[in-house]
Amino acid sequence: MNYTVLLLLLLAMALYVWLMSRYDARRAQRLDRWHVAAFGATVAVLYLALEPPLEPLADGSFLAHMTQHMLLVYVAAPLFLLSAPMMLLLGSLDLTKARQLGRFLRGPLWRFLTFPVFTWLFFMAVMWGAHFSALYELALTHPVVHIVEHALFLAAAILFWQAIIHIGPVSWPMNFPLRVVYVFLATPQGAFLGLALYQTRKVLYSHYVMTHDGSAAAALADQHAGGALMWIGGGLLLFVVFMIVVAMWGRHERRLGEQLDARLDARLRSGAVLGIVFALAAFGISTRAADTTLGQGQNLYQIHCSSCHGSSLQGSANAPSLRNVSIDAVQFYLTTGRMPAIAPSEQNQHRTPILSPAQIDALVTFVMSRSHGSTVLPVVDNVGNLARGRALFTANCSACHGATAQGGSVGYGWIAPSLDRATVTQVAQAIRIGPGVMPRFDEHTLSDSDVNDIVRYVNVLQTNVPNAGGLPLGGLGAVAEGLVAWVLGMGVLIVVVRLIGTNA
Amino acid sequence: MIRRLALALDDRLGTAHFMRKALRKAFPDHWSFMLGEIALYCFVVLLATGVYLGFFFDASSQPLTYNGSYLSLHGIQMSAAYASVLRLSLDTRAGLLLRQIHHWAALVFLAAITVHMCRIFFTGAFRRPRELNWIIGLVLLILALGAGFTGYSLPDDLLSGTGLRIAYSVLISVPFVGTDLAFLFFGGAFPATETIGRLFFAHVLILPALIAAAMTLHLGIIWRQKHTQFRGPGRTENNVVGSPLWPNYAMKSAGLLFAVAAIVTALGAFFQINPIWLYGPYDPANVSAPAQPDWYIGWLEGALRLGPSWDWQIFNHTVPAPFFAGVLLPFVFFSLLFVWPFLERRITHDGEPHQLLDHPSDTPWRTGVGAAVLTFAIVLTFAGSDGVQAKIVGISVEMLASLYRIMLPVLPAVVGLLSFELARELRARRDALPGTDARIVISRADSGGFVGQPEEHRERRP
């Protein structure tokens, strides 16, 4: 029994439970219990890998030692990440400490360490380097080096897996196709290493000759068995991960599809619901109608919003509290289809709402009945001063959304969306609430009449008046122009000279 | 009538002898010999459209209040230059069409120069005796880059002003003389009222005149030295096989002129380019996204984006970051191109005059180096628009920039080695083919019959 390891594991468990209690208290919400389960599993796997009966065997047999490493690298590391350590840490620290940690996470060192190309190469380098260098032999004879080696394995593996396990803050978010490629490229590397060990002609680590009673043949057979385990066992584990990532991709796409279905259904229903609402209003029972709306809104809230924003609008780790939300924000997020969100980790894009206008009204009424935020709606008349609007747009908006309002990328994976689909009201609301990373422009920065002017100009850009000069090439400017010049200009001219000239 | 005119000219100037020779001059028929001509005809289109634009452009930064037909800019203060381009684009008959043709022709002009230069490089056409023309060609490329950039900067809109601000920052980063250089080109600290006037003068007089002069020299030297040609039956170091200038080649070339004019006109008619009314007048406080240069400046933009953020202190003198990526890199790049013919001669010890071209596979190492340098420039060009790509592909711009930083050394090495190997493989295969060299030349024997004998053994490089 290795008491140091046992002690460390117990300490880690105690730390996790302590952080968890702080987190639960601070967030007024429990950490998802499957994170806790993942942590339990991590500890169990680590115990299995580093304690008897495996540990004493690993000293004498390469096969057992390889099993240990596989457990650390392919099972313990991903399980540890699934236990959401970073989210837990950020959520349970004091505000100043959490800010310091956040600064470190956004800093160059952490961003370098977690860059997917680096993590992938680093993981591979550690795996290959450890087996084909003196480090391994050294580890077998010096316990301290052995601990360092295991720590290195674990660290490289955690860095490797964090690139595709997106829980808590993510430095380099990758979409599903990229994650699939990432895992896919790792599979042959592991297999090659296993195969290389499987086909070795001589014993790599003389230590094992000693533990096999001086028989080189027995040590070589043991070495081959270890290589085979890495080749087949490692391959299978990576294949399982690969299938999981593909399945998650599929689920993500299916959700997008379901949203589309729901949107179509909503469109069919919305006519009927609107009719009923108008009919009730016409019968002069508006009070009752309002009550019904409130009830309907509450139902919709419980179905679509409460899982992230909490059943009493208190918010969660994934979503902000709505207790002080303004009517502008609620309307904006719902009418642009950004809410209900598809996945909390992604930037919400403008899409056709899955809720009908009547449902949105009901939801807005409900949320505003519980929120202390402003209920004043912007007055947008779309008759603002065009030239002032253009000047204000250039000064405040075009640096991110582009001179043609076609949008652009603003760093760290965030996108300033194209304004093509936004209504005048939505543009005005976005200016006031600043969705995502967009700054909030309050009345002191842009007055109501300023907003009206900007909205008017955005409307002119949307309708493209006057669209002189032909196809606008996506409003992307010189990049699209260069492409056209090369393909339709130079490309066609090369074809022309090829036709005029000969090939001799 | 023409006959009488020709006779009259000959009578007075004795032109018949020259014309008889000139009209029968042989031009190679291979299509790649017409790439440079595309550039020439683009220049013709640029001159023709540029003259028309010049009538309407007001090269002045005098502020005025706009009251033309474009409502979104009504009552806005702007420079006379920007207002005149607005008027030209939106209120002048055929103004926008001609401006767009001019701009498209400029983009194709630079593209044609690039492709032409690649052809010259990869076939070894720059070797003795044509080193001088290679250098003149490079000068033409630099002049064309200058003409392109000054033209892009003239309208004084928000986009071109952003480009000028970058150019100014790069210029003042030059140690010791930077500030003076910047003042020379800009006429004062940016943004200066003098700038537009100087740019205009450079764009419509100095640069086109220099380009025309260098082009004349370029073509004159070709005329004097005659064309190179690819290897083939009957082609030697001492002859040129091709069509005579009149009527065959002249017809082809005239056809190409019309094709170039037609294509850039079609681009100008159907595709919007640089809609300056959307960008608005230049205001140093503002910037629009995506702010991109025309494609041929993209590699410099990319170098600035990927370049290291060094700020070196040398003898109490700061050498800021833009110097390394914006000045040093293009300087090294062009220096390498300028000295390449001489460098290559040092390596191969081949100072012989060459009239026959190499196939790229004949010289794997040259092909490899060329492909690597080209890839380097292409990676930089793509890195210059990483923001736009990040939006389209949906990954963060930082990740993309990091990827480009890795690709910048890696990709040229990979592409260079691959091209080298591929060329070597091709050469080995061709050399292994049986009977390719055993061409039998049949000629009449003195005795009256025919004799066949193998052609002179083809020159082959090691």
Describe what this molecule looks like in 3D.
The complex is a heterodimer of chains A (504) and B (462). Helices cover 69% and strands 1% of the residues of chain A. Chain A has a two-stranded antiparallel sheet. Chain A contains 22 helices and two strands. Chain A has three domains: 3-252, no CATH class; 284-377, Cytochrome c-like domain (Cytochrome Bc1 Complex, Chain D, domain 2, Orthogonal Bundle), CATH 1.10.760.10; 378-465, Cytochrome Bc1 Complex, Chain D, domain 2. Chain A has helices at 3-27, 33-50, 54-60, 62-82, 85-92, 95-106, 108-113, 116-131, 134-141, 143-162, 176-198, 206-211, 216-282, 286-304, 306-309, 327-335, 357-370, 386-396, 398-401, 424-433, 448-463, 478-500; strands at 408-411, 414-416. The longest helix of chain A is centred in the middle third of the chain and has 67 residues, at 216-282. Chain B contains 16 helices and eight strands. In chain B, a hairpin with a 2-residue loop joins strand 5 (312-314) and strand 6. At the A-B interface, helix 18, helix 19, strand 1, strand 2 and helix 21 of A face helix 3, helix 5, helix 10, helix 11 and helix 15 of B.
